[in-house]
Specification:
Ten copies of one chain form a homodecamer.
Chain A (H helix, E strand, L loop, with lengths): L1 E8 L7 H21 L2 E7 L4 E7 L3 H9 L7 E10 L8
Antiparallel strand pairs in A: 1-3, 1-4, 2-3
Chain lengths: 94, 94, 94, 94, 94, 94, 94, 94, 94, 94
């Protein structure tokens, strides 16, 4: 089941440098593990913004929430979700 | 060069049935030709809305405008564009 | 899989009376069939507005789109969807 | 009398860990007591957000305010209320 | 039970003069009957706008919806509702 | 001269408990004195929000500003004002 | 008593040319009479918009409403009002 | 050249009392000097808000920016500018 | 004096084809004459939108209004203006 | 490839004076180097705001992101991007 998700990140400017580096490393590892499993299908940077647009392919709402809630950066994110369906003009559909 | 594009469609309710059917057939053909060429990389229906989220892979701004302006449904669309860049956490990047 | 859906209805003021009555009867029948099947779990009127808030329990995004797209009033609706998950404070969870 | 209520939570990032755990435990207990009494009819997590959508069935506006004002997390919440009425298409109505 | 209600009116500019006069007379009669019954406690014109702010004192959500849905001008209104409770600083409370 | 005023309150979460209690006591006394003088005609709590809707009956804009600017909670408030006039449907008008 | 008022005008594009000319002439005459009386203290065009910002000096809310409601262009306007008071930095105050 | 300018002020609640008094005195002196020169034509308090609406008559955009950027309260302000032109209904125009 | 101006165009879908072609030809001629005179310094198409972003270099507010008000497409445009000043980091400044 | 970019700056009021001066000097040097290379084609101050509107001429989305992400003031900016294309009325086009 597909979802488009936009995540806007806002890390406090007074966060300790080392804590921040660790947080970002954890975020990257977390994201890449899900990408390798195929649940985090795509991730793109929004140009000029500390934000990404991602496509998730998960078993359902419960799993999507679990994945997003578990993001190391979750406390610093604003998240916007669009549930997706097959588009009738998609060439993959016929 | 990648762009996320959201298109919201609003066709006048008094449009003639035959004209509408033709318009939608043209839109589908137009979209599928671009999908086959690889410029219209993905298209998804937004659940419960007459709208889609698409990913375009085009040579640049000029080409993206040409493609969107040429959409048969363009006069009935509201279009929102987000330029995309590679995300540093993308596993495809390394 | 649960979704909260808010539907705001705006029927053109010049719609023919008979056509409107038929449309509303079809909408009611369509909704009640889905309620009896258990997919349209709840529907409430928003006080003072031509709108409803509903809870859907469907197999996934594809089915939710199919159900909403098929609403007789769909062309006259603005629809807002919130995917839901179990809340950790829900007594039904334990 | 029914109300749909959406609560968005924003806990300060510098809150002491123990104070936060206690606060969340109190919130859960408070919510569950009201659920058991039948006044807090349903609670769902909004996917990917620190937020919930709930249905309250209370004696009236005074009681709803008392319940919400008393939430341990109230100082950290933004609350949006929609008064509900029976929908004429509800199968439970006939 | 008290509710603050703001109603913004937008009557189509091409409405027939006689039909409009009748509609407005019906609206006034409808409003005044409810005022005399005490359910429509106050009504004020918003300066410079085709809008009013009103206070309703009704038995609950169901009755408020019935009253508002029945307004002759309802199809031409945008309605915004704020449920009210006693304020602890109100001198009438003590 | 009548005005509808909505006040949304946001007190800093780190305000000292005693300072806050004193501030709230001053606010209540200030409000009640104006209510007794008849200038602060009504005050209601907005259900589920740290906010009130009030009706002021003052000599004019200068006096309304003086009253609001003097509120002990003024530095912590967002204030929205709607000037009111007699409504032609008001039964008190005839 | 002073008020800043912004009026945005939107005349239907299919209005008959002669009717429109008459309407605009009436609006101008109406405005100029009030300017000469001193109640419509200032009027400026907002650059690049069919809109004006005006300062009114009237006896109170009732009179302001009467003046605005009576504008020949009122049915085609969106009006935004800001009640004004003397500013403590105004050199005219001392 | 005329501009309508709205300034909303938000001074940090923890600013030292003496620093704040000095800042406000500087702001007042700055404003009054420009009023006496005729560049700051009018200033009014927005009722119930820490805000003003002002009319500036300056040589152009560069000068307006210089004036506003130099405001002692500039770092604490949100500023909204509307360029003004003569209105054809202005009696001063003929 | 520089201004950034964004113009969004919305031509009624039922406009006669010939009338529309003439209107667009007039708009182009009008724009190009001003470009040649140097007052309409730059014009760019906003990708995927019936809109442009332009830079004007005019004698002041009065002239800018005259130019925009005279646009053949003015009745079909929404216009947003940002007055510009020299930026201290501009290399042309030194 | 052209992009219009608006940057709104918000530097924390408690930033150390020397750190701030250094930050601003770095920003200016960074901007001017890109201006000299021709990638940062134009920069204007928005009158009365700590903001600029700029035109970038870069090889594509990746480069635009690299440039913006590298701005010394990036952590203190809100950035809004509009991809641009040639306008058919541009005299430079013919």
């Amino acid at each position: 089941m597909l979802f488009a998700v936009r995540m806007d990140v806002s890390i406090p400017q007074d966060m300790d440098g080392k804590a921040k580096a660790e947080l970002l490393a954890n975020e990257k590892a977390y994201s890449q593990e899900l990408q390798r499993k195929g649940e985090w299908q795509s991730i793109w940077r929004c140009v000029g913004e500390y934000a990404n647009i991602s496509i998730f392919d998960v078993s359902g709402n419960e799993r999507l929430h679990e994945v997003l809630w578990g993001l190391p950066l979750f406390p610093y994110m604003t998240i916007d979700i669009t549930p997706l369906a097959v588009h009738p003009s998609d060439v993959a559909v016929g």
